[in-house]
Each structure stands twice: as structure tokens, then as C-alpha cells.
Recover the amino acids of this structure.
DNA sequence: CGTTATGTTGAACGTTTTCAATTCGTGTGG
DNA sequence: CCACACGAATTGAAAACGTTCAACATAACG
């Protein structure tokens, strides 16, 4: 009864409340207070919770993927995060005791359920649990700030490249291929998340393919030249200051009149 | 000895760990574990901590103001937050056990110091303390997301207006005038925070003054027409769909060729 | 009183958006 | 099984918003 469901879960190794979640619990008196973790399966388009819903639990993605979005007063949506197996979800509820986001699934997915009581028990009795939750929430803020920084300091090419690399990295962490993957989100989602027009996303993907940086076939993406993609994210002033002998390496950052990407610019 | 310093602090009523921080502590056994809170005075330009510094404590602003910034790989700065009396600071350290931000003061300021041990004690022994810290951290993330949303969905005029209104609101919460205040940050800071060029900030402030929305005299700002400013933040489609009989009310959102703000656009 | 940091203003340019027209894919119903 | 329809994605041309560059003004500070 007091055994945590995800103790034996195959995805537990990626669990956002850490790889040590089982030891974590076992080493404390929290077990008596922690309720049995249950999980549930959802399908594409299903919602886990909506903004305004009572904050009853945290969730951990076991499989699939999801997106979290906030709604502006003018009723348009802003996607604030994507979630993959192991990611912790729902901490937006701590602020107002009700959820601030809408979370919906991008494909068939399953999630663990951790009641707020369990969370409280964890915080009370486990030093590690405290650290993990606080670390996770702190990291959330840092990630959002990084995202904000990207919007402010990077061009759209850099942001999209950065997005793909980040996706690749997150999938690799979960034991999947870092070079080939299928996007579970639409271009619309990507554009919304990155704060650009879908047309821009489309154009950039096409251009990147022409540059032999990636291969695109609808939702299926292959990263062909990751080192070069990394350079693109870093480069900004580089593209302007270095001399022409550098060749086309930073073509996408240069004047739009010189290179294939010219179709992007005006 | 076990009495919290800020128990009698005049700023305690605005304290980020809630208005009830004293009751909070008194109602629990936390007092034995909580160390005496000390405070310290800093001057303009002083740094509280830097990215990479060990995470030893949280801080609460008692007076003055500060900014937190992150540094990109290319060494340029991104201001992620401004702090005013009562604000809780330093939770960025939970993620990696070291600080991720640089925090520096915009004017002479004083801050309370709360050691991580005290924080732990609070979390262990006080339900209210847990709620307050988690709520604060959750709210931080939501605020950053709001900021991100603003950058994505709002024009520069809307963002700057929103910034001024937010400032006004935060100062009002602290018992100061919501209509008249002195900016403790430079135009450079504002521009950096909002992700625009200083020239744009300057131009927009001038235009808003011409529109009789605000009065600007260097750092001193007077909000003249708050209701109209609120409208500007909300309006987006409005400015395009409503007919001309509406007069100049949404001038700043319209074509830049018609109105005083024309200097902003191309 | 001069030097430096901060702020303002103008004009040209560029990136990204918007509008508009197609194409592609997937699923639905005849 | 095909036709149809709808959403998703692509592509082009024009327009807008904000940036950049450059010159200048003003305040702060030693």
C-alpha cells in the first residue's frame, strides 16, 4: 500500500523528482503519508487540467508528450512549455492554489499522479525531496528566463535552431536518438512557442534543409549537421565581424542578399 | 535570540514570505531552528551575489531596489527581474546549489538575510512557510511566462506601457504613489529588460508624453492617464478593427503615418 | 569647468509579419 | 474506393515594426 507506484515504473529512471525517488522515499518516514501513485492514459488532444482548475496534484509524464499554455485576456494562447517522459508537471498550481496553465497532450501519453498531500509529506520528511522539488521549480524559472533571453538576443533562425537542438538533447537524455525524431507538435505550436509566424517557421526549416543542416519531411526531422547548428546559435556578432574567408559557414547570419537563405529576408 | 529580526521590521508587512511571517514562525517549532535574521546595507552598483556564487541564503529587500541579470555565452547581459521592498530574492540558487543570476543594487538599499538552514527549518516545520515559498517560486515562473507572452504578443508600446503600469502597481502595494515615481533604473536597463533598443524606449516615452499619457522628466515619471494606458495594453486588434470615429485614443496602435508617433515607425 | 555617462532625435535599413494563393495530407462520408 | 473537405504546411510579394548608425543634447560628477 505504501509503496510508490512509480517505484517499479520503467520511466522512473528519468523521473523529474530525480533518479533517486525510490531511495528518497524509502529512507524517510514519508512512506506512511505518501499515497499510492497512480497513473492514467490520455490521448491526443485530451487535457490534463485547465487554468482555474483546483490544484490537487503534481504529475510526472511517463510516456508521450504534452504542452502547457497560458491564455491572454484577448483569448489567444501562449505555449509556455513542452513536456516529455520524466518531466514534472503542475507546479504552476502552487502560486494561487489553482492551475494557471492549460495542459493538453500531443499524442497518446500516460502520467503519474502525485497528490498534494504526498507532496507535502515529501517536503516534510525528505530533505532530498525538498531539494528536488525546489530545484525543479527554480530550474523552471531559469528555463523561462533563458527562453526570454533567446527571444531578446537571438534571430528567428537561431531560436528555431536552438529549439531543435534542445529537443534533440531532451530526447537523447531519455535514451532516444538525438539525430532523428518525430515532432509531436505542429508548426503552429512551434511558432507559438517561439513567438514567430508559422510562415517564418516553415521558411526557416526549408532553408535549413537547403543548407544541409537538417532533413525535414513533415513532422520527421533529421539533424544532419549538429556542430554547425550549435555554431549558429552562438554566433551573432561573429557573423558580422569575421571576414569573408570564413566561407558560407555563417551564411544564415549574414546579409540576406548573399546566400540561399535570402528567401527569408525581405 | 530566536526572534526573527524582521519581526519588528517596518517592511515586514510587505514581506514576500507573506504578511504573516511573524505569526507563521511563532506558530511553529521552527523558531528553535531559525537563525536570527540580519540585514545589511548596500549602495548603488554593489552586488549582492554573482552567478556561480555558492547558494547560502535567500534575501528579502527591506528598502531600495535591485536588478537580477543573467549573462549569455556571448557575455551580454539580460535583466530578468527588478526587486523592491518586500521582494524575495535568491531562489535562483535552488536549481544548481549556486546562483544563476547577478544581483546588483540600483540605489542605496538594505536586505534581510535568511540562511538556507533557516529556509530548511521553515519548510520542515511550517506548513504556511512551505506554501509561501512554493507559491513565491511558482509565481516567479508565471511572471516570467507573462513576460515572455508580452514579448510575443505585444508591440513595444504595449510592453513599455505595461512595464510602467506594473511598476506603478508594485509601488502602490508598498504604500507609495501609483501615479508619480522616480525610476531607479536607467533607460538602458529598461530597454534590456523589455528587449528593445534604448532609442525605442526613449522615443516611446517622448511619444507617450505628447499623447498626454505620462509626464517624463528624466527619471521622474508621472502617469497622467492610467485608464487609457490600460486600454493600450489590452488593445491590439481593437486598434485595427474599430472605425475612425474613435479619434486618437488608440493612435499609438494604428498606422504610424497618421499620428504623432510616426517618428517611431519607418 | 570639462569630461563622461545618459538620454534624445533623425534617417535608412533589415528582419519578420501579414496577406494571399497553393499544395499537401489525412480522415470522412458517399 | 474515390471524392471531398478541412487543417496543416509551403511559398511569394508587400508592408510594418523596430533596429542600427550617427549626430547631438543634457545631466552628473570629479
Amino acid at each position: 500500500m505504501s509503496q510508490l507506484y512509480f517505484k517499479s515504473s520503467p520511466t522512473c529512471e528519468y523521473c523529474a523528482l530525480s533518479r533517486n525517488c525510490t531511495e528518497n522515499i524509502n529512507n524517510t518516514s514519508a512512506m506512511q503519508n505518501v499515497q499510492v501513485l497512480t497513473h492514467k492514459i490520455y490521448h491526443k488532444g485530451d487535457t490534463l487540467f485547465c487554468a482555474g482548475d483546483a490544484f490537487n496534484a503534481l504529475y510526472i509524464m511517463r510516456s508521450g508528450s504534452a504542452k502547457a499554455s497560458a491564455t491572454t485576456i484577448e483569448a489567444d494562447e501562449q505555449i509556455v512549455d513542452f513536456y516529455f517522459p520524466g518531466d514534472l508537471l503542475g507546479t504552476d498550481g502552487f502560486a494561487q492554489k489553482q492551475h494557471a496553465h492549460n495542459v493538453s497532450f500531443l499524442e497518446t501519453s500516460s502520467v503519474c499522479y502525485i497528490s498534494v498531500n504526498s507532496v507535502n509529506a515529501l517536503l516534510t520528511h525528505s530533505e532530498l525531496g525538498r531539494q528536488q522539488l525546489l530545484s525543479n521549480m527554480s530550474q523552471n524559472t531559469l528555463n523561462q528566463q533563458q527562453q526570454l533571453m533567446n527571444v531578446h538576443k537571438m534571430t528567428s533562425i537561431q531560436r528555431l535552431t536552438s529549439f531543435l537542438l534542445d529537443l534533440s538533447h531532451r530526447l537523447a537524455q531519455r535514451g532516444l536518438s538525438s539525430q532523428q525524431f518525430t515532432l509531436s507538435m505542429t508548426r503552429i505550436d512551434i511558432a507559438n512557442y517561439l513567438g514567430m509566424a508559422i510562415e517564418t517557421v516553415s521558411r526557416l526549416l526549408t532553408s535549413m534543409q537547403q543548407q544541409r543542416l537538417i532533413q525535414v519531411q513533415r513532422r520527421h526531422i533529421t539533424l544532419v549537421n549538429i556542430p554547425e547548428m550549435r555554431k549558429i546559435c552562438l554566433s551573432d556578432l561573429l557573423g558580422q565581424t569575421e571576414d569573408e574567408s570564413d566561407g558560407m559557414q555563417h551564411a544564415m547570419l549574414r546579409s540576406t542578399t548573399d546566400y540561399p537563405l535570402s528567401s527569408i529576408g525581405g
Notes: Chain B has a mean pLDDT of 78. The first helix of chain B runs from residue 21 to 26.
